[in-house]
Amino acid sequence: MANIFSNIPSELPDEIFEDIINTEKLRVERIVSKGQTSPNAGWYDQRENEWVIVLSGYGVIEYKNGVKVTLKQGDYLNIKAHEKHRVIETSSDEITVWLAIFY
């Protein structure tokens, strides 16, 4: 057994990306953030669909078309494959734990 909130370091200079399940057709990933945002290099443009939920903290996702969505604890959304997006803000006061399912 494991717990989604375990093994989170007290200091988080970099975002943590951890695969929980990784198969040929499905990947489940835990993302842990504290003030981090997407790299300045550009937009995420993923081959897979991504369903993401915020379990603690908050995050703001911006789509290439300018739409911004704030996700707080319990909020989730589905990002279609090749829908360009980026994370422009995460909580700097507390840890943000995301659960992302890529399919």
Automatic annotation (TrEMBL):
CDD domains in alphabetical order: cupin_reut_a1446 (cd06981)
UniProt cross-references to SUPFAM superfamilies, sorted A to Z: RmlC-like cupins
Classification via InterPro entries: Cupin_2 (IPR013096), RmlC-like_jellyroll (IPR014710), RmlC_Cupin_sf (IPR011051)
A Pfam match: Cupin_2
Domain called Cupin type-2: residue spans: 43-102
Entry coiled-coil feature ranges: none
Full protein name: Cupin 2 domain-containing protein
